[in-house]
Amino acid sequence: MVGLGDRIMIQRETPEHQGRVVWLASFPKSGNTWMRAIITALRTHPHLFGVDQLSSGSQPNHVGMSLNAFGLDARWLTPTEIDTLRHALITRTGVIPEFTGDNQIDDMPEVMERMNAPVFRKTHEVFRPGEPSIEPFPVEATRAAILIVRDPRDVTCSYAPFFGQSLEQAVESLAREGSETHANPALTQTAQPWGTWSTHAQSWLASDVPFPVHLVRYEDLKTDPISTLLPVFNSVGLMCTENELEVAIARTRFEKLQQAETERGFRETSPKTTQFFRSGKHGGWRDELDERLVQRIEADHGEVMIQLGYPLETPADQLGPIRSARQSRRRQEQTAWESLPPQLGLTVTVGSTPEELEGASHPRPWIQVTTDQALLTFNSGSRLLVSEGRKVQIDWETDDSPSKDGDDPSWMLQGWAVTLSVLQRGMLSLHAATVRIGDSTVAIAGLRGAGKSTTAMGLRARGHSILCDDVTVIQFKNNSAWTTPYDRNVHLLEDAATALGVDFDSLPRLSGGRPKVAFRPEDTEPDETKIDRIIVLAWAPPTTSIRVNQPAGVQRMNRLLAHTERDGIAPLVLGEDTYFTQVAKLADTVPITQITRPRGTWTLDDVLDLIENEATK
Amino acid sequence: MVVGPSVSVDNEPWLLKFPGLGSATVAEDGTVTIDPEPGEDSDLRSEALLYGWADLISWSRRGFSLIRGSCLVPSATSDSGLLLLGGDHELPEVEFPLLSRGWHLVSDKPTPMSETEAGLSAYPRSAPLVAPKRYRKQHEWAATALRQDSNAFGFEVPRAHTPIAIRGICEVRTRRLNEVVLENVTGLERFSIGAHLAIGGILSPVRDAREPDEAVAAHVRAASLPISALRIDPNTILVDVDLLLAWWDSVIES
């Protein structure tokens, strides 16, 4: 990544055989069309220039032009063959043929000049290197790229009407990686990943781009087009004088393009809008975006905005919590509520469950347990049935069609369904969050409200990885206790979220009980991991100080019973003998540390220090 | 080194090659041979080489233009064809509702066309109607994926099997805000559509001609046919197609 000082050109080592293609790369609504208009105006007689005659051809993902080039109907190709075709089409126009022997054209300067003239191609895609022979931006055909960037707050205001979105939706679109990541043979297109506004710019400015990239800011183009463009154009072989460029810019002034569109239309206008050339203003976002949307954009893209010279309005200490919550939200959006890691081996269905299980025990009024089935009935009326350790059925009372908009049954699935299924398979479920701290794996157990999730999130904020929250699956191998990490939401109370720098209001709210939100940490590797230590969190009266002790003898087992009996279900499902044997084995194989802290006092940082210390023992 | 498809036209027969897919030859008289890369799915590769490539070159070598659109007729015995021009996105949107109302397919895009004294004629191609996978759920026609991992499906739809006179042209596009659904194309726009009717480059039968009068004549003839512009919206497609049918009736009556 570069800073603003480097913005004129990122010079890289270029191959000896330089191609003709100059990529006009930009995130949508960043000034690409205006740039193409200027280039077209430079190359066109004034009387022939029109807004509908912009050069730069189709975008590179469209391989339908193969019908002209090769006579091929690309709909009959596989995605890989389509990628190969794209490469061939770009190479066909971009590689300058070598003239030797009888084909020498050194004495024909006009032909030479034409053969060497740059070919401009618009693209909204992110740069990616690609596999050999199917690189999406073939280096042998490429001369350079011109990356046009624009303040994402202004992009948002232009993007929303163009794609028929609200400003709020446009903010989300700029922060989403996008879905066009696979080839689409039916529409004769290769993948065309746009990335987010940030990742788009970062991809083109990254050090692995194998050709020169010229960075042009839309705002500089507006304020000083001549000195912004002249060196760039001359560098890529579009030779022009200052006067010629001045004339071209005068012919493509925004008002003129807008007027031409009003009079004759513009074929590139989206079906969702009546006007392509809408405002073109620099800083127009100040009149259109409210503070909340500005904060979201700056939380999503602040780092890259600063690097590209776009000052932020929001103080840094406000941006962190919003950023953290928004990243979590996007991780949740990318995960279907019913998805669980395959290593857990569960099948999930939605449908009605029985109200009663015949011959069941009732360790709590809302729990029914038999040897191979468990049925839980929640306050909302929703029910969860887990059978034979593998089958999960959810009777979702709140909504016929569970979705990730708002509350969904993921908490039921990720918590209770996993616990019940592992018990039915003869394993233990430890009521604990598990965190990877350096080379150690530490399970943090505690009763409801003991601060397991808050502690795990605090450790995450210190750079450690949350492997799972609330339910730690335990199985024994080679005299050690092992767990299978699985990604799930962490449920946070408002004070904990605030203390941890997470914007509570930006996260999905959970129904029932005290107000909690679901935070999705980063996904973890699903490999089984040995548990090196169990930390038991406990409360003490407010006047005491934090105490750390290592339980010994029978105390070790006592500490674990409270966190493994799972509302009395575990002894019923496993059988008392098996259950107590397993807990004893866990107490025997994993060191236990109890941390007792005073109620009513915020001691998180001290607790985190102690846990980090214990983990290194 | 360039890796990708190639067409060698220096010797007879013409040789088409696409590494990974296979090769084919097309003789001057249109005779085709297919040689897919061996291995699993070689049948699908054969079909791709044939319908997606060699067949098109074959029509072109026999002097036919290949039109950027599909041709359909109101019934199997009809003598009047409607040429639908449009992109891969728009054409199936109109083709399927027409087929559901009893129309028959002469050729899915691209359509072979020739000019005779009687006018412009479209010729049946045996390639299936190609459309995105999602149309399987909306229509009754049997469909299979053209290739592995592809979202392009071939649909077996009712066919017309004889050459058909083109009586009208409809250019289909996605409707923008405030655009009318259907209008007659007039003036210069008609010549623009006529001039862009045929696929150029290697599929143009007059690619080597020094004097392109032959092609110009076909364009002018196409421009003299009734031409409409249909602006579709997937949400109103049945109403949009009703308007197209009303226009078609007026063309036939006139």
Brief synopsis:
The complex is a heterodimer of chains A (617) and B (254). Chain A is an alpha/beta fold and 617 residues long.
Give an overview in words.
The complex is a heterodimer of chains A (617) and B (254). With 617 residues, chain A is α/β, with parallel strands linked by helices. Helix content of chain A is 36%, strand content 18%. Chain A is built from 21 helices and 22 strands. In chain A, β7 and β8 (373-377) form a beta hairpin. In chain A, α1 (32-43) packs across α10, α7 (197-205) runs parallel beside α13 and α9 crosses α10 (242-251). Chain A is elongated. Chain A starts with 20 loop residues before the first strand and ends with a helix. Mean pLDDT of chain A is 86; it is low at 1-17 and 399-406. Chain B has 254 residues and is α+β, with helices and mostly antiparallel strands. In chain B, strands 5, 6, 7, 8, 9, 10, 14, 15 and 16 form a nine-stranded mixed beta sheet that branches. In chain B, strands 1-2-3-4 form a four-stranded antiparallel beta sheet, with helices on one face. Chain B has a three-stranded antiparallel beta sheet with strand order 11-13-12, with no helix packed on it. In chain B, α4 crosses α5. The longest helix of chain B is centred in the first third of the chain and has 20 residues, at 42-61. Chain B is globular and about 50 Å long. Chain B starts with 5 loop residues before the first strand and ends with a helix.
